[in-house]
Write a structure and sequence with these properties.
17 strands; alpha+beta; globular
Length: 503
């Protein structure tokens, strides 16, 4: 029998990790992470992926064992028995009240403090049942029911780490990510040394907050261009102009407006955890009197409630690498309709998608397949992505045409319809065109612009995008290649026309 199987057998037999002649400390003083480590050798208690901390307890009934074992320890203490924790006083202090895991935060202690042992026993048994059934429901994919059980367990024992951890992970799995963040943070407040929860919190935050935020904040070229445009707008409209920052993120653009002298700024951010960070950042920089952070999507803002009146200046940097992916058109259209005064200053005031035909053996391997290991797998090309991120000239590709505009959008207009049109592109070099590398040009204000042109922009927050062709097209210098270009309001359309393949 392996060590882990022996541990499992003893747990099932008598709820203890110590044998009759073993003088080790009881499980209640052992960190939960050590228990998990001991048990991972058994195939039926392996913790898989994002499963609950207590999910494996449906097999081994570990939660019941742990709870009853800790309750038994408390009974022993109450009867004047030896303090089991003090028996390990010569070992490193890893069992203090603050450093204990959820095992040491079992509700039996909390419940008995009310002086009603009988009621405490009943509540503890009910808690055990709620935890175990919640874990089972989660394993069966009944996440909402699992959440209801864990929430009921939380009402019995509000500070129980296992309960809160199970609840947090179930909430995250159900898409209630901010509530999961709140639960994880509460656990870490109770026990800052819970590394498992610290890891889960960081992992969840990395899902909620896109990776490009930090890189974009460090993009000085972009930042400087936006600040110049904001300064010009504040100088023109006056320091008391009402400013609305949509998709505020960290609050950087709002703080630029405040630094320019603006005193009436509303920064709206729809992601709760980002809005919380923005509020802290604004206060940290002493600008909370000029800037009010609102945790709402702009579509939920109301003039007269969230805004004193319609805004005089709109600043919004929700432009993605492929121009439209962040719901730009609906957002700006709604702002014009409900939130901005007629003739308001808009930053940016226009955005253009620009591109060129390219050849690249490297990119072609991401966009198409043919014969692999002697097998024809070319039908799989139909499943490859229509767009691929490209990092400037760091990716090997060769230009086959001059730059040309794909789509230009005037963001000062109040309505935008989908557009699709034919465009002939003159080929400048012979080659195999695998698609169009596309970047963006932003018109921020008179004489102020920003572009992530691949020849000049290497270390910023935006990438370029390769719009792949269904298959490479052979082209020759001087040829006119017909493309279908436009947008459907949420994404760019870049395709070779059917005539291009007919040649």
């Amino acid at each position: 029998m392996s060590h882990s199987d022996d541990v499992r057998a003893r747990l099932l037999r008598d709820g203890s990790l110590i044998g009759p002649g073993d003088h080790s400390s009881p499980l209640a003083t052992v960190r939960l992470r050590r228990l998990c480590f001991l048990c991972t050798g058994s195939s039926d208690v392996v913790l898989r992926g994002r499963k609950l901390v207590g999910a494996f307890c449906n097999i081994d009934r570990l939660l019941l064992v742990l709870a009853h074992m800790h309750d038994q320890e408390r009974r022993t203490r109450a009867q004047g028995g030896q303090d089991l924790t003090s028996r390990s006083a010569n070992t490193p202090d890893r069992g203090s009240a603050q450093s204990q895991t959820a095992v040491a935060s079992t509700p039996s202690d909390l419940l008995r403090s009310e002086g009603n042992a009988g009621r405490a026993d009943g509540d503890l048994q009910h808690l055990d049942a709620l935890i175990e059934k919640g874990a089972l429901l989660h394993r069966l994919g009944k996440t909402e029911e699992a959440i209801a059980h864990f929430d009921a367990a939380r009402r019995i024992a509000p500070d129980h780490e296992l309960v809160l951890t199970n609840l947090a992970i179930a909430l995250a799995d159900s898409g209630q990510r901010h509530d999961a963040v709140v639960a994880f943070r509460k656990i870490l407040k109770l026990n800052p040394e819970n590394e498992y929860v610290r890891h889960q919190l960081r992992r969840l935050i990395s899902i909620i907050v896109p990776f490009w935020h930090a890189r974009m904040l460090n993009d000085t070229t972009r930042n400087d261009a936006f600040e110049r445009a904001i300064q010009a707008a504040v100088a023109r409209e006056g320091r008391h102009a009402r400013i609305l920052d949509i998709g505020a993120g960290s609050g950087l653009l709002s703080m630029m407006a405040a630094r320019a002298g603006a005193a009436n700024i509303v920064a709206c951010e729809g992601v709760p955890i980002i809005a919380e960070a923005a509020e802290r950042i604004v206060a940290l920089n002493g600008l909370d009197r000029a800037i009010r952070v609102i945790n709402k999507a702009s579509s939920d803002l109301t003039v007269g409630k969230d805004l004193e009146g319609r805004a005089d200046i709109l600043v919004s940097e929700i432009i993605s690498s492929d121009l439209l992916a962040e719901n730009v058109l609906d957002t700006f259209q709604d702002a014009h309709l409900r939130l901005l005064r007629e003739g308001a200053t808009v930053i940016p005031r226009a955005a253009t998608a620009v591109g060129c035909l390219v050849e690249s053996e490297v990119l072609d391997k991401y966009a198409a397949v043919s014969v692999v290991s002697g097998f024809d797998v070319s039908p799989f090309t139909e499943l490859t992505p229509s767009r691929l991120p490209v990092h400037g000239i760091m990716t090997s590709w060769r230009r086959l045409s001059d730059d040309f505009d794909l789509v230009r959008i005037d963001l000062t207009e109040s309505k935008h319809l989908a557009v699709i049109q034919e465009r002939a592109v003159t080929v400048r070099e012979d080659g195999q065109a695998v698609g169009v590398v596309q970047w963006i040009n932003l018109d921020l204000a008179e004489g102020i612009s920003f572009s992530n042109h691949p020849d000049r922009y290497f270390d910023g927050g935006w990438l370029q995008v390769l719009h792949t062709f269904p298959r490479p097209i052979s082209v020759v210098k001087g040829q006119e290649l017909d493309l279908t270009v436009g947008h459907d309001r949420v994404s760019l359309i870049v395709l070779p026309s059917s005539r291009s393949f007919a040649r």
